[in-house]
Amino acid sequence: MSSMSLRNRLLQHRQMVRFFGVGVLATLTHILLFVAMMELFVISAVVATFLAFSGAFILSYLLNHSWTFEAQGRHHFHLPRFAVVGICGLVLNMAIMYLLVDFLNYAYPIALAVVVLTVPLLSYLMNKNWAFNNGA
């Protein structure tokens, strides 16, 4: 194995670890914002989850843009693509749940395991190869 190939593999591994770390941080941010708004303000759960999701989305975009994929500027280019990837992830998540739970009658933990094992990986690949790829 050449030193360049090893270097590329290490960089890809680092990028994946960063992506999943950002995902964990965004999830914790969503939870903390949601709970804080529910406990500190008199707002509905729907409004609180929208605001919490929005905060987590912004954090996730900024960290993935600047740290995970080390993209340079061009937010007008990257942000819409990042949003499309997020929407695709949501649709895929919902489709897996519908297919496995509602249509095939699997227990929801099985469907959740499939979601957790597939959606983040596909989101990573879409973000890497399209959303934050300046050449795409």
Structure in words:
The chain is an all-alpha fold and 136 residues long. It folds into two domains: 1-70; 73-136, no CATH class. The chain has helices at 3-40, 45-68, 75-103, 108-131. Helix 3 (75-103) runs antiparallel to helix 4.
Work out the strand percent.
under 5%
Strand tally, please? 0
Compute the number of structural domains.
Answer: 2
Indicate the overall shape.
Answer: globular
> In which range does the helix fraction lie?
over 70%
The radius of gyration over CA amounts to: 17 Å
Please identify the structural class as seen in this structure: mainly alpha
Task: Summarize the helix and strand pattern as letters.
Answer: HHHH
Spans of at least 5 consecutive residues whose pLDDT stays below 50 are: none
> Average pLDDT across residues?
92
Largest sheet: none
Could you list some keywords that capture this structure?
136 residues, 2 domains, 4 helices, 85% helix
What does this entry show, briefly?
This protein has 136 residues and is mostly helical. The chain is 85% helix and 0% strand.
